[in-house]
Amino acid sequence: MATLLCLIAVFLAGTTIRGAVGQEDGFLSIDCGLDAADSGYKDTKTGIVYVSDGPYVDGGENHRVAADQESGFGRPEKTVRSFPSGERNCYALPTVAGAKYLVRVVTVYGNYDGKNSSSSTLQFDLYLGVNYWDTVHADASDVYEALFVARASWAPVCLVKTGSGVPFVSRVDLRLLGSELYPGLTANQSMNLYIRHNMGSNIYIIKYRDDRYDRFWWQGNSNPLWKNISTSSAVAVNSNFAEPLAVMQTAVEGIRTNTTVEISWESKTASEFIVAVHFADFQNSQLRQFNISISNRLGRDNYSPPYLATAGLMGWTGWSSDGKYDISLEATAASKLPPILNAVEAYIPIDHANPMTLPKDFDIIMSIKLEYRIKKNWTGDPCFPAAWDGVKCSNPSANTSRIISLDLSNSNLHGTISSNFTLFTALEYFFDSDRDTCNKSIHDVNPSQQKSKANRSAILAMSVVVPVMAIVVLVLACLIWRQKRKNNISADVPPRESEPDIVPASRKNYGDTLQTVENRRFTYKDLEKITNKFSQFIGQGGFGLVYYGRLEDDTEVAVKMRSELSSHGLDEFLAEVQSLTKVHHRNLVSFVGYCWEKDHLALVYEYMSQGTLYDHLRGNNGVRETLSWRTRVRVVVEAAQGIDYLHKGCSPPIIHRDVKTQNILLGQNLQAKIADFGLCKTYLSDTQTHISVAPAGSAGYMDPEYYHTGRLTESSDIYNFGVVLLEIVTGESPMLPGLGHIVQRVKKKIDAGNISLVADARLRGAYDVSSMWKVVDIALLCTADIGAQRPTMAAVVVQLKESLALEEARADSGFKSTGATSDTAISMSEFGPLAR
Ligand SMILES: *[C@@H]1O[C@H](CO)[C@@H](O)[C@H](O)[C@H]1NC(C)=O
Ligand SMILES: *[C@@H]1O[C@H](CO)[C@@H](O)[C@H](O)[C@H]1NC(C)=O
Ligand SMILES: *[C@@H]1O[C@H](CO)[C@@H](O)[C@H](O)[C@H]1NC(C)=O
Ligand SMILES: *[C@@H]1O[C@H](CO)[C@@H](O)[C@H](O)[C@H]1NC(C)=O
Ligand SMILES: *[C@@H]1O[C@H](CO)[C@@H](O)[C@H](O)[C@H]1NC(C)=O
Ligand SMILES: *[C@@H]1O[C@H](CO)[C@@H](O)[C@H](O)[C@H]1NC(C)=O
Ligand SMILES: *[C@@H]1O[C@H](CO)[C@@H](O)[C@H](O)[C@H]1NC(C)=O
Ligand SMILES: *[C@@H]1O[C@H](CO)[C@@H](O)[C@H](O)[C@H]1NC(C)=O
Ligand SMILES: *[C@@H]1O[C@H](CO)[C@@H](O)[C@H](O)[C@H]1NC(C)=O
């Protein structure tokens, strides 16, 4: 069973298969309708291994042929899969793009449905991808074979209803052909087998192992004007056709030298044929020479077959007005022997006019389908004849369509977001969730991130989300983290021996639906290069040291290396990476990628050139000018929007847990973004509205309610944000030794009724008083002791925007308040009391 699973995995990987003993490379033999438990049996005659069709097809039902007929069929034909629902059902066969294949569909009705159907009541069509291949009749020929060049990593073979009964199939064979085979076979020319005859043989059918590629060579007709000849000598192989020796060792020749050997047929459906004729002479003592004509068209005059070697000729019949086609061999005057014919093939060209999905996009969506095991009635070509459910394609007037939109709502996904998504270069929208959140089009993404095309795929990776999985991973990370705490294992875990450490643990709990994060992954070497060997140190965060770096395309990045002493463990690292991957907003610091090697953990973010709000308020790190009130308010509006997005923009909500001025970063134009979200802080479920973890956060920002209860909710972020607001008002630290906490200090001063005592002296009165009051008012509401009394972040954003508007009106009116004490006093008396 293990071998079998292995085998299936190999099939799925789209690689060629080296099967059980003796089976050729590149054989995939599917016994349709076979129970998965029986998959992998070996055909006793040929040694070919048959697998069940489960991994290759989604719909359909399994059946057995009628008991009274069973004995007449080989094992693969004893079961069938039928497709009562859906107009079009397809098998997806793993292929290598550009390689040549033979595909064979065997349909043996065997009255599997007990309806005694006949060819008049049971018919359906076969399609090779988007292209019509043949029509199956219940009681007619039961073998359909085609040669094609694979366009992508998957070749769809479709059974399409035509209104006469339920399509079914017994067996599907895929055989990889040598690249030299059938020179006329090209990517835009597939061929449907019409006849393949072995002349002069008394064997009904020759196939594998005589034919290395498992082509079927049926016994040709007999004709009173021909006689059978054969040899037991070896006949040299022809690399363009690789005819089996057993086929080439028999032939027919005319009964007299001047007898024309002619093969003719009539077709009302096909308007042209591709023909291959195969010759090998068994004697070289006398001249055998003849003219070959194929429907009076392509010919070869004065042709002599090689001695004990094979020669194959291939050509087109051309279109025939009466539907009659023939191959005729006529001896020349000089010939001493009649014409000879060893084998003949005729194919109907498969029309390739139908548009199809760009092969690359097809491969990607198939990867996604497989990776997430999407059972969404996704079958055949993604765009044609109709787009898959949830898929939108570019203008189909072009012959190859691109996938431009993907909606995975309600698809019951499993797995993390995969970098496979980033491969859709034409994707414009991605709808990921069954909630109305995190539904972002690429155009919603921060435009500054869109400047380089190369970046675009990375952005997409960040803006797409598969929430179900993200929850699982975050919850898991939480569980691991909590477990660690319980076990009293220090959070500063020593570097792990190797990265897979955490992965098997995850797998153990969640099966293989859980995978590690897919995002831009850097090697330590990359980081060395990006940071010029960590030459520019730019700060220290909770995670570790931060270095400046530049990517290949000159994008500036901040590389956060995990230090050994960091209190962040691997689990938190994983959690952070997960949530970074999950969210994207213009007021959240963009995540570029990560490094996860033996002894090195690192996170790579966009570089925020102007440092932290903390630095600006404190005058640290070379900041000389204090921020104006207007800038301060704008910065907190933006920061509030970022936090609001964490709380409400994503499902489940993310609690930042460490909102502080050090985590509000400023970019080139002092635009603000929230950093360091991504610790373990996701709600476990909708019903459980908080998670209990040991109190965390930074000194001076501790939410008293959280401190007492250990219940972490969004309102803790609100509290912390209130502290941030008081900092921009006062310019002071939350904690001043001997003076108490900022909330108490501000409250005291406000009780004294004087806003100028509260406002940062460095502003030198340059602020709109009502704007300032409004911020203080919001801050005090945010820092209410009881979480339930605090406003939501959305309400905070609205209020702060009003404050900003007041300040902007002041600044834009050109009113420069220098001393402004009297104004302040007036304002204070007007607004002060209302502030509380
Ligand atoms: C697949 O979807 C198509 C339309 O999207 C529908 O007509 C067909 O019945 C579905 N097939 C199955 C098996 O659900
Ligand atoms: C189907 O054919 C079998 C014999 O081949 C016969 O016994 C049976 O009655 C037939 N059933 C129907 C529904 O015609
Ligand atoms: C088919 O492809 C070949 C090259 O592989 C090209 O020369 C030929 O023009 C194509 N034919 C059609 C009908 O597109
Ligand atoms: C001669 O070969 C033909 C196939 O080309 C076959 O049908 C026939 O049975 C053979 N005759 C004898 C006597 O073997
Ligand atoms: C073929 O040759 C024979 C003599 O070998 C002759 O009788 C016959 O007429 C010739 N047939 C044709 C069509 O030339
Ligand atoms: C065979 O072809 C040659 C060269 O075209 C021609 O001269 C000759 O008449 C042809 N023979 C027959 C029997 O058609
Ligand atoms: C894409 O999906 C396939 C199939 O699930 C998986 O094997 C492969 O690793 C993925 N590729 C990338 C780049 O994520
Ligand atoms: C594109 O499709 C049209 C029919 O839709 C067909 O005529 C044309 O040959 C196709 N072109 C190529 C390059 O396949
Ligand atoms: C997602 O957004 C698109 C447009 O931006 C909209 O058409 C679609 O209905 C939204 N989907 C959900 C589930 O909200």
UniProtKB/TrEMBL annotation:
Compartments where located: Cell membrane
Gene Ontology cellular component annotations, sorted alphabetically: plasma membrane
Keyword terms: ATP-binding, Kinase, Membrane, Nucleotide-binding, Serine/threonine-protein kinase, Signal, Transferase, Transmembrane, Transmembrane helix
Topology of this chain in the membrane: Single-pass membrane protein
Signal peptide: 1-22
PROSITE patterns associated with the record: PROTEIN_KINASE_ATP, PROTEIN_KINASE_DOM, PROTEIN_KINASE_ST
Transmembrane segments: 458-481
Domain Protein kinase: 532-804
Organism: Oryza nivara
Residues annotated to bind ATP: 560
InterPro entries on file: Kinase-like_dom_sf, LRR_dom_sf, Malectin-like_Carb-bd_dom, Prot_kinase_dom, Protein_kinase_ATP_BS, Ser-Thr/Tyr_kinase_cat_dom, Ser/Thr_kinase_AS
Pfam short name (any one): PK_Tyr_Ser-Thr
Name assigned to this protein: Protein kinase domain-containing protein
Main location: membrane
One Gene Ontology molecular-function label: ATP binding
